[in-house]
Amino acid sequence: VFELYEPERTENAWAVARAVLTAVFVGTLLFAATSFFAVSASIAFSRISRLSILLSFVTVSVLLIGWRLLFLRFGAISWPEQRVLLMGTSGLACELAEELDRRSKWGYRVVGFVPVEGAPTLAAEPDPTTLCGHRIFSADTDLTRIVSDNSVDRLIVVSPVAIRELVEELVLHEEINVTVDVVPELYEVFIGSVDSMVGDIPLMQITRAGSPAWFSTAKRLVDLAGAIVLLVVLSPVLLLAALAILLTMRTPIVFRQERTGRDLRPFNVYKFRTMVRDAEKLSGPVLAEEDDPRITPVGRFLRRYRIDELPQLVNILKGDMSFVGPRPERPYFVEQYLTEIPGYRERFRAQPGVTGLAQVMGNYATTPGRKLKYDLIYMYHQTLAMDVQIVLETLRVVLTGRGAR
Protein backbone atom coordinates (compact mmCIF):
# COMPACT_ATOMS: atom_id res chain seq x y z
CA VAL A 1 0.00 0.00 0.00
CA PHE A 2 2.84 2.39 0.82
CA GLU A 3 4.84 1.47 -2.31
CA LEU A 4 7.76 -0.03 -0.41
CA TYR A 5 8.67 -2.10 -3.48
CA GLU A 6 8.85 0.84 -5.89
CA PRO A 7 12.33 1.85 -7.11
CA GLU A 8 11.85 5.49 -6.03
CA ARG A 9 11.62 4.31 -2.42
CA THR A 10 15.26 3.17 -2.57
CA GLU A 11 16.78 6.47 -3.70
CA ASN A 12 18.10 7.42 -0.27
CA ALA A 13 18.00 6.38 3.39
CA TRP A 14 15.39 9.00 4.30
CA ALA A 15 12.97 7.76 1.61
CA VAL A 16 13.29 4.21 2.94
CA ALA A 17 12.91 5.25 6.57
CA ARG A 18 9.89 7.48 5.93
CA ALA A 19 8.01 4.80 3.97
CA VAL A 20 8.78 2.06 6.52
CA LEU A 21 7.80 4.24 9.50
CA THR A 22 4.49 5.16 7.87
CA ALA A 23 3.66 1.56 7.02
CA VAL A 24 4.64 0.19 10.44
CA PHE A 25 2.72 2.98 12.23
CA VAL A 26 -0.50 2.18 10.35
CA GLY A 27 0.03 -1.56 10.90
CA THR A 28 0.54 -0.98 14.62
CA LEU A 29 -2.63 1.12 14.85
CA LEU A 30 -4.62 -1.63 13.14
CA PHE A 31 -3.19 -4.25 15.50
CA ALA A 32 -3.91 -2.09 18.56
CA ALA A 33 -7.49 -1.50 17.39
CA THR A 34 -8.00 -5.22 16.80
CA SER A 35 -6.57 -6.00 20.24
CA PHE A 36 -8.92 -3.46 21.86
CA PHE A 37 -12.05 -4.85 20.21
CA ALA A 38 -10.97 -8.41 20.99
CA VAL A 39 -11.09 -7.78 24.74
CA SER A 40 -14.84 -8.40 24.92
CA ALA A 41 -14.42 -11.68 23.03
CA SER A 42 -11.72 -12.87 25.45
CA ILE A 43 -9.31 -13.65 22.64
CA ALA A 44 -5.79 -14.53 23.81
CA PHE A 45 -3.84 -11.71 22.17
CA SER A 46 -6.23 -9.15 23.67
CA ARG A 47 -4.11 -9.38 26.84
CA ILE A 48 -1.05 -7.92 25.11
CA SER A 49 -0.02 -4.76 26.98
CA ARG A 50 0.21 -1.28 25.47
CA LEU A 51 3.92 -1.24 26.31
CA SER A 52 4.47 -4.41 24.26
CA ILE A 53 2.70 -2.82 21.27
CA LEU A 54 4.88 0.30 21.61
CA LEU A 55 8.06 -1.77 21.87
CA SER A 56 7.05 -3.81 18.82
CA PHE A 57 6.58 -0.60 16.82
CA VAL A 58 10.10 0.55 17.70
CA THR A 59 11.69 -2.88 17.18
CA VAL A 60 9.99 -3.62 13.86
CA SER A 61 10.78 -0.13 12.53
CA VAL A 62 14.47 -0.39 13.43
CA LEU A 63 14.83 -3.92 12.04
CA LEU A 64 13.00 -3.20 8.79
CA ILE A 65 14.83 0.05 8.10
CA GLY A 66 18.18 -1.54 8.99
CA TRP A 67 17.53 -4.62 6.87
CA ARG A 68 16.46 -2.61 3.83
CA LEU A 69 19.40 -0.22 4.01
CA LEU A 70 21.86 -3.11 4.39
CA PHE A 71 20.35 -4.98 1.46
CA LEU A 72 20.36 -1.88 -0.75
CA ARG A 73 24.02 -1.33 0.14
CA PHE A 74 25.31 -4.87 -0.26
CA GLY A 75 22.58 -6.81 -2.08
CA ALA A 76 21.66 -6.97 -5.76
CA ILE A 77 18.16 -6.14 -6.95
CA SER A 78 17.04 -7.04 -10.46
CA TRP A 79 14.36 -4.43 -11.19
CA PRO A 80 11.96 -5.15 -14.08
CA GLU A 81 12.84 -3.25 -17.24
CA GLN A 82 10.91 -0.05 -17.98
CA ARG A 83 11.31 1.11 -21.56
CA VAL A 84 10.78 4.88 -21.70
CA LEU A 85 9.97 7.03 -24.74
CA LEU A 86 10.35 10.82 -24.44
CA MET A 87 8.12 13.13 -26.46
CA GLY A 88 10.05 16.31 -27.15
CA THR A 89 13.63 17.16 -28.07
CA SER A 90 14.30 20.16 -25.83
CA GLY A 91 17.11 20.64 -23.33
CA LEU A 92 14.76 19.48 -20.57
CA ALA A 93 14.06 16.26 -22.50
CA CYS A 94 17.81 15.64 -22.75
CA GLU A 95 18.25 16.35 -19.02
CA LEU A 96 15.43 13.92 -18.21
CA ALA A 97 17.02 11.23 -20.40
CA GLU A 98 20.34 11.66 -18.59
CA GLU A 99 18.60 11.36 -15.21
CA LEU A 100 16.91 8.14 -16.36
CA ASP A 101 20.24 6.81 -17.63
CA ARG A 102 21.72 7.41 -14.17
CA ARG A 103 18.84 5.34 -12.79
CA SER A 104 19.42 2.43 -15.15
CA LYS A 105 20.00 0.15 -12.13
CA TRP A 106 16.26 0.53 -11.48
CA GLY A 107 15.46 -0.90 -14.90
CA TYR A 108 14.94 2.37 -16.81
CA ARG A 109 15.87 2.13 -20.50
CA VAL A 110 15.45 5.23 -22.68
CA VAL A 111 14.20 4.10 -26.10
CA GLY A 112 14.56 7.50 -27.74
CA PHE A 113 12.89 10.82 -28.51
CA VAL A 114 9.92 11.81 -30.67
CA PRO A 115 10.16 15.40 -31.98
CA VAL A 116 7.11 17.66 -31.76
CA GLU A 117 6.50 20.19 -34.50
CA GLY A 118 6.62 23.76 -33.21
CA ALA A 119 8.20 22.81 -29.88
CA PRO A 120 11.62 23.99 -28.63
CA THR A 121 14.49 21.81 -29.87
CA LEU A 122 18.01 21.40 -28.52
CA ALA A 123 20.78 22.40 -30.90
CA ALA A 124 21.58 19.58 -33.31
CA GLU A 125 24.37 17.21 -32.33
CA PRO A 126 26.98 15.99 -34.82
CA ASP A 127 24.57 13.18 -35.64
CA PRO A 128 21.10 14.73 -36.27
CA THR A 129 19.42 11.36 -35.70
CA THR A 130 20.50 11.17 -32.04
CA LEU A 131 20.11 13.30 -28.93
CA CYS A 132 22.06 12.74 -25.71
CA GLY A 133 23.14 9.37 -27.02
CA HIS A 134 19.62 8.16 -27.87
CA ARG A 135 17.73 7.77 -31.12
CA ILE A 136 15.42 10.46 -32.51
CA PHE A 137 12.44 8.93 -34.26
CA SER A 138 10.95 10.54 -37.34
CA ALA A 139 8.12 12.97 -36.56
CA ASP A 140 6.17 11.43 -39.45
CA THR A 141 6.10 7.97 -37.85
CA ASP A 142 2.83 7.00 -36.17
CA LEU A 143 3.24 7.27 -32.39
CA THR A 144 1.27 4.10 -31.64
CA ARG A 145 3.54 2.22 -34.04
CA ILE A 146 6.67 3.51 -32.29
CA VAL A 147 5.26 2.46 -28.92
CA SER A 148 4.25 -0.97 -30.21
CA ASP A 149 7.42 -1.74 -32.21
CA ASN A 150 9.74 -0.74 -29.35
CA SER A 151 7.73 -2.33 -26.51
CA VAL A 152 7.45 1.02 -24.73
CA ASP A 153 6.15 0.83 -21.14
CA ARG A 154 6.16 4.53 -20.33
CA LEU A 155 5.73 7.68 -22.41
CA ILE A 156 6.88 10.99 -20.89
CA VAL A 157 5.61 14.14 -22.63
CA VAL A 158 8.22 16.87 -22.18
CA SER A 159 6.98 19.28 -24.84
CA PRO A 160 4.63 22.08 -23.70
CA VAL A 161 2.97 22.08 -27.11
CA ALA A 162 -0.61 20.80 -26.95
CA ILE A 163 -0.84 17.24 -28.29
CA ARG A 164 -4.01 16.17 -26.49
CA GLU A 165 -5.59 14.32 -29.42
CA LEU A 166 -2.40 12.36 -30.04
CA VAL A 167 -2.03 11.33 -26.40
CA GLU A 168 -5.74 10.41 -26.13
CA GLU A 169 -5.40 8.19 -29.18
CA LEU A 170 -2.43 6.43 -27.61
CA VAL A 171 -3.93 6.03 -24.13
CA LEU A 172 -7.23 4.69 -25.45
CA HIS A 173 -5.74 2.40 -28.10
CA GLU A 174 -7.15 -1.03 -27.30
CA GLU A 175 -3.96 -2.97 -28.11
CA ILE A 176 -1.48 -0.74 -26.29
CA ASN A 177 -0.95 -0.57 -22.54
CA VAL A 178 1.40 2.29 -21.74
CA THR A 179 1.83 4.66 -18.81
CA VAL A 180 1.76 8.34 -19.85
CA ASP A 181 3.41 11.08 -17.76
CA VAL A 182 3.85 14.78 -18.49
CA VAL A 183 6.38 17.28 -17.25
CA PRO A 184 3.86 19.85 -15.99
CA GLU A 185 3.72 23.53 -16.79
CA LEU A 186 2.33 25.92 -14.15
CA TYR A 187 -1.24 25.36 -15.42
CA GLU A 188 -1.04 21.61 -14.91
CA VAL A 189 0.45 22.11 -11.44
CA PHE A 190 -2.48 24.37 -10.52
CA ILE A 191 -5.08 21.74 -11.49
CA GLY A 192 -3.24 18.53 -10.56
CA SER A 193 -0.66 17.02 -8.25
CA VAL A 194 2.88 15.77 -8.78
CA ASP A 195 2.98 11.96 -8.81
CA SER A 196 6.73 11.31 -8.95
CA MET A 197 10.14 12.94 -9.38
CA VAL A 198 13.09 12.08 -11.60
CA GLY A 199 15.94 13.96 -9.97
CA ASP A 200 14.41 17.42 -9.48
CA ILE A 201 12.05 17.11 -12.49
CA PRO A 202 8.40 16.67 -11.45
CA LEU A 203 6.11 14.29 -13.35
CA MET A 204 2.33 14.01 -13.45
CA GLN A 205 0.79 10.70 -14.47
CA ILE A 206 -2.22 11.11 -16.75
CA THR A 207 -2.99 7.41 -16.97
CA ARG A 208 -3.74 5.07 -14.13
CA ALA A 209 -2.94 1.38 -13.95
CA GLY A 210 -5.55 -1.10 -12.80
CA SER A 211 -6.34 -1.31 -9.10
CA PRO A 212 -3.67 -3.04 -6.98
CA ALA A 213 -4.42 -6.56 -5.80
CA TRP A 214 -5.00 -5.51 -2.19
CA PHE A 215 -7.66 -2.98 -3.26
CA SER A 216 -9.50 -5.50 -5.45
CA THR A 217 -9.42 -8.06 -2.62
CA ALA A 218 -10.66 -5.55 -0.03
CA LYS A 219 -13.42 -4.37 -2.34
CA ARG A 220 -14.53 -7.94 -3.04
CA LEU A 221 -14.70 -8.73 0.70
CA VAL A 222 -16.77 -5.60 1.30
CA ASP A 223 -19.07 -6.56 -1.60
CA LEU A 224 -19.62 -10.07 -0.23
CA ALA A 225 -20.28 -8.92 3.33
CA GLY A 226 -22.54 -6.07 2.20
CA ALA A 227 -24.57 -8.24 -0.18
CA ILE A 228 -25.21 -10.92 2.47
CA VAL A 229 -26.25 -8.38 5.09
CA LEU A 230 -28.53 -6.47 2.69
CA LEU A 231 -30.22 -9.65 1.45
CA VAL A 232 -31.11 -10.49 5.04
CA VAL A 233 -32.10 -6.97 6.13
CA LEU A 234 -34.08 -6.17 2.97
CA SER A 235 -35.79 -9.55 2.66
CA PRO A 236 -39.18 -8.04 3.68
CA VAL A 237 -38.82 -5.41 0.93
CA LEU A 238 -37.90 -8.10 -1.60
CA LEU A 239 -40.94 -10.19 -0.64
CA LEU A 240 -43.33 -7.20 -0.82
CA ALA A 241 -41.94 -6.16 -4.22
CA ALA A 242 -42.29 -9.72 -5.54
CA LEU A 243 -45.88 -9.91 -4.25
CA ALA A 244 -46.79 -6.55 -5.83
CA ILE A 245 -45.44 -7.66 -9.21
CA LEU A 246 -47.21 -11.02 -8.99
CA LEU A 247 -50.58 -9.39 -8.22
CA THR A 248 -50.37 -6.67 -10.89
CA MET A 249 -48.24 -8.13 -13.68
CA ARG A 250 -48.24 -11.87 -13.03
CA THR A 251 -45.12 -13.86 -13.77
CA PRO A 252 -42.23 -13.58 -14.37
CA ILE A 253 -41.38 -11.59 -11.24
CA VAL A 254 -37.63 -11.44 -11.87
CA PHE A 255 -36.21 -11.32 -15.36
CA ARG A 256 -32.71 -11.96 -16.65
CA GLN A 257 -31.06 -9.75 -19.23
CA GLU A 258 -27.68 -10.23 -20.86
CA ARG A 259 -25.17 -7.48 -20.08
CA THR A 260 -21.50 -6.92 -20.90
CA GLY A 261 -19.15 -7.07 -17.93
CA ARG A 262 -15.45 -6.76 -17.24
CA ASP A 263 -13.17 -7.54 -20.20
CA LEU A 264 -16.30 -7.59 -22.41
CA ARG A 265 -17.48 -10.87 -20.87
CA PRO A 266 -21.28 -11.40 -21.04
CA PHE A 267 -23.34 -12.24 -17.97
CA ASN A 268 -27.01 -12.24 -16.93
CA VAL A 269 -28.17 -9.41 -14.70
CA TYR A 270 -31.20 -9.92 -12.43
CA LYS A 271 -33.90 -7.28 -11.94
CA PHE A 272 -37.49 -7.09 -10.78
CA ARG A 273 -39.77 -6.82 -13.82
CA THR A 274 -41.11 -3.27 -14.21
CA MET A 275 -42.46 -3.38 -17.78
CA VAL A 276 -45.30 -5.13 -19.53
CA ARG A 277 -44.61 -8.62 -20.80
CA ASP A 278 -42.63 -8.84 -24.09
CA ALA A 279 -41.91 -5.10 -23.92
CA GLU A 280 -39.45 -5.22 -26.83
CA LYS A 281 -41.30 -7.69 -29.02
CA LEU A 282 -42.15 -5.07 -31.65
CA SER A 283 -39.48 -2.41 -31.10
CA GLY A 284 -36.41 -4.55 -30.56
CA PRO A 285 -33.70 -3.43 -28.07
CA VAL A 286 -34.29 0.20 -27.05
CA LEU A 287 -33.23 2.23 -24.02
CA ALA A 288 -35.93 3.02 -21.47
CA GLU A 289 -37.17 6.62 -21.49
CA GLU A 290 -38.20 8.81 -18.57
CA ASP A 291 -41.94 8.51 -19.36
CA ASP A 292 -41.76 5.12 -21.06
CA PRO A 293 -45.34 3.83 -21.66
CA ARG A 294 -44.14 0.23 -21.28
CA ILE A 295 -43.46 0.77 -17.56
CA THR A 296 -46.36 -0.28 -15.32
CA PRO A 297 -47.51 1.83 -12.31
CA VAL A 298 -45.94 -0.62 -9.87
CA GLY A 299 -42.84 -0.75 -12.04
CA ARG A 300 -42.58 3.04 -11.99
CA PHE A 301 -42.60 3.01 -8.18
CA LEU A 302 -39.96 0.27 -8.07
CA ARG A 303 -37.76 2.20 -10.50
CA ARG A 304 -38.18 5.49 -8.68
CA TYR A 305 -36.73 4.06 -5.47
CA ARG A 306 -34.32 1.61 -7.18
CA ILE A 307 -36.09 -1.39 -5.67
CA ASP A 308 -36.01 -3.08 -9.08
CA GLU A 309 -32.20 -3.25 -8.78
CA LEU A 310 -32.17 -5.22 -5.50
CA PRO A 311 -31.96 -8.69 -7.15
CA GLN A 312 -28.53 -7.61 -8.39
CA LEU A 313 -27.29 -8.41 -4.89
CA VAL A 314 -27.23 -11.98 -6.24
CA ASN A 315 -24.99 -10.78 -9.09
CA ILE A 316 -22.65 -9.31 -6.49
CA LEU A 317 -22.50 -12.62 -4.61
CA LYS A 318 -21.73 -14.44 -7.87
CA GLY A 319 -18.89 -12.01 -8.63
CA ASP A 320 -20.46 -10.61 -11.80
CA MET A 321 -20.82 -7.14 -10.32
CA SER A 322 -19.69 -4.87 -7.50
CA PHE A 323 -21.66 -2.34 -5.48
CA VAL A 324 -19.84 0.53 -7.23
CA GLY A 325 -18.55 0.63 -10.80
CA PRO A 326 -19.59 1.47 -14.36
CA ARG A 327 -23.16 0.37 -15.02
CA PRO A 328 -23.22 -2.69 -17.33
CA GLU A 329 -24.82 -2.14 -20.74
CA ARG A 330 -26.53 -4.59 -23.07
CA PRO A 331 -24.35 -6.11 -25.83
CA TYR A 332 -26.53 -4.53 -28.55
CA PHE A 333 -25.71 -1.01 -27.33
CA VAL A 334 -22.11 -1.84 -26.41
CA GLU A 335 -21.40 -2.74 -30.06
CA GLN A 336 -22.77 0.65 -31.12
CA TYR A 337 -20.88 2.66 -28.52
CA LEU A 338 -17.57 0.89 -29.24
CA THR A 339 -17.69 2.23 -32.79
CA GLU A 340 -19.24 5.63 -32.02
CA ILE A 341 -17.56 6.76 -28.77
CA PRO A 342 -13.74 7.00 -28.62
CA GLY A 343 -12.30 5.21 -25.60
CA TYR A 344 -15.52 3.38 -24.73
CA ARG A 345 -13.63 0.08 -24.47
CA GLU A 346 -11.65 1.47 -21.53
CA ARG A 347 -14.63 1.25 -19.14
CA PHE A 348 -14.58 -2.56 -19.41
CA ARG A 349 -11.32 -2.76 -17.48
CA ALA A 350 -13.35 -2.37 -14.27
CA GLN A 351 -15.96 -4.58 -12.63
CA PRO A 352 -19.46 -3.24 -13.40
CA GLY A 353 -21.48 -1.90 -10.50
CA VAL A 354 -25.03 -1.60 -9.23
CA THR A 355 -24.40 2.12 -8.91
CA GLY A 356 -21.66 4.42 -10.10
CA LEU A 357 -20.41 7.98 -10.33
CA ALA A 358 -22.39 8.56 -13.54
CA GLN A 359 -25.62 7.51 -11.82
CA VAL A 360 -25.26 9.91 -8.87
CA MET A 361 -23.70 12.85 -10.71
CA GLY A 362 -25.65 12.66 -13.98
CA ASN A 363 -29.36 12.58 -14.67
CA TYR A 364 -31.73 10.41 -16.64
CA ALA A 365 -30.90 12.04 -19.97
CA THR A 366 -27.11 12.00 -19.55
CA THR A 367 -25.56 10.83 -22.84
CA PRO A 368 -23.43 7.64 -23.04
CA GLY A 369 -20.39 9.77 -23.94
CA ARG A 370 -20.78 11.89 -20.84
CA LYS A 371 -21.37 8.83 -18.68
CA LEU A 372 -18.10 7.42 -20.02
CA LYS A 373 -16.25 10.46 -18.65
CA TYR A 374 -17.74 9.84 -15.20
CA ASP A 375 -16.80 6.14 -15.45
CA LEU A 376 -13.19 6.97 -16.35
CA ILE A 377 -12.95 9.53 -13.55
CA TYR A 378 -14.02 6.81 -11.14
CA MET A 379 -11.75 4.14 -12.61
CA TYR A 380 -8.61 6.31 -12.54
CA HIS A 381 -9.20 7.67 -9.03
CA GLN A 382 -11.18 4.98 -7.22
CA THR A 383 -10.69 4.42 -3.51
CA LEU A 384 -12.76 2.72 -0.83
CA ALA A 385 -13.60 6.19 0.51
CA MET A 386 -14.92 7.18 -2.92
CA ASP A 387 -17.01 3.99 -3.02
CA VAL A 388 -18.56 4.89 0.34
CA GLN A 389 -19.26 8.42 -0.88
CA ILE A 390 -20.99 7.11 -4.03
CA VAL A 391 -23.10 4.66 -2.01
CA LEU A 392 -24.18 7.45 0.36
CA GLU A 393 -25.00 9.70 -2.58
CA THR A 394 -26.99 6.83 -4.13
CA LEU A 395 -29.05 6.60 -0.94
CA ARG A 396 -29.83 10.29 -1.25
CA VAL A 397 -30.87 9.81 -4.88
CA VAL A 398 -33.04 6.84 -3.89
CA LEU A 399 -34.78 8.78 -1.11
CA THR A 400 -35.49 11.73 -3.41
CA GLY A 401 -36.27 9.57 -6.45
CA ARG A 402 -34.11 11.83 -8.63
CA GLY A 403 -32.90 10.53 -11.99
CA ALA A 404 -34.40 7.06 -11.63
CA ARG A 405 -33.36 4.72 -14.38
Task: Explain the overall architecture.
The protein is 44% helix and 13% strand. It has 405 residues and is of the alpha/beta class. Strands 2-1-5-6-8-7 form a 6-stranded mixed sheet, covered by helices on one side. α1 runs antiparallel to α2 and α7 packs across α10 (312-318). It is flat. 25% of the residues are buried.
How would you summarize this macromolecular structure in one to three sentences?
The chain has 405 residues and is α/β, with parallel strands linked by helices. It has 14 helices and 12 strands.
Blueprint (SSEs and pairs):
Layout: H1 13-37, H2 50-74, E1 82-87, H3 91-102, E2 108-114, E3 130-131, E4 134-135, H4 143-149, E5 154-157, H5 164-171, E6 179-182, H6 186-191, E7 196-198, E8 201-205, H7 213-233, H8 235-249, E9 254-260, E10 266-272, H9 297-304, H10 312-318, E11 322-324, H11 331-340, E12 353-355, H12 357-361, H13 368-381, H14 384-400
Parallel strand pairs: 1-2, 1-5, 5-6, 11-12
Antiparallel strand pairs: 3-4, 6-8, 7-8, 9-10
Helix pairs in contact: 1-2, 7-10
List keywords for this structure.
alpha/beta, 405 residues, single chain
Low-pLDDT residue intervals, each spanning 5 or more residues: none
Distance between the termini: 37 Å
The count of DSSP E runs of length 2 or more, i.e. the number of strands, is 12
> In which order are the strands of the major sheet placed?
2-1-5-6-8-7
Number of helices: 14
User: What would you call the structural class?
Assistant: alpha/beta
- Shape category: flat
What is the beta-strand fraction? 5-15%
Classify the helix fraction into a percent range: 40-55%
Any idea what the radius of gyration is? 27 Å
Mean pLDDT score:
82
Main beta sheet: 6 strands, mixed
Give helix and strand order, one letter per element, not per position. Answer: HHEHEEEHEHEHEEHHEEHHEHEHHH
